[in-house]
Amino acid sequence: MTEELKEKITTVADKLLGLMAVEAKTEVVEEEGSYTLNIEAGDANGLLIGRRGETLSSLQFIISIALREELGEDARVFVNVGDWKEKQEDYLNSLAIEAAKKVRETKEPYPLYNLNASQRRIVHMQLANETDLITESTGEGEERYLVVKIKE
Predict the structure, then answer these.
(1) Which of 28, 81, 90, 130 is deepest in the core (most CB within 10 A)?
(2) How many Å apart are CA 109 and CA 97, to the nearest integer?
(3) pTM of the model
(4) Which H helix or E strand runs over 69?
């Protein structure tokens, strides 16, 4: 099923990109029960990523829905455009380390706003092994944010 599923992911992605009038190179990589669709579209990478990765998230959602309709089951597919996810993860890990440093210096909680759920998860994971700190998400919906603070 692996090769067949990789072909289906590529077919759906190529069709969607064609509808968007975007020429791109696609590659599907299997990773521990999930699949990553790597897209390289040159000058159109920014268009496919969108503001704060919103278009990229939408592409991932649409591809997942299309595959569910075709296969009758869910397939875990992640979309990455122009290595954006790696760059985003590096940035968020740096942000987490900087927040931890400020919390240790000031002993005051440090809020991180404007992060979506997957971004908050990256920060949580980066700081999970810090024995003197905790991270927690606070608020609801669009107002949800992450706080880094000293463990009591």
Answers:
(1) 81
(2) 14
(3) 0.77
(4) helix 54-71
* Contact of 123 with 112, CB cutoff 8 Å: yes
For residue range 126-140, what is the model confidence (pLDDT) as tens digits?
999 999 999 999 999
How far apart (Å, rounded) are the C-alpha atoms in residues 114 and 35? 27
Q: Return the sign of the alpha-carbon dihedral for residues 112, 34, 8, 65.
A: negative
Residue intervals of the chain classified under CATH 3.30.300.20 are 2-82
Domain with CATH 3.30.1370.50 in the chain: 87-150
Decide if domain 87-150 falls under CATH 3.40.50.360: no
Is 152 exposed, middle or buried (CB count within 10 Å of its CB: 0-12, 13-18, 19+)?
Answer: exposed
CATH class assigned to 2-82? alpha beta
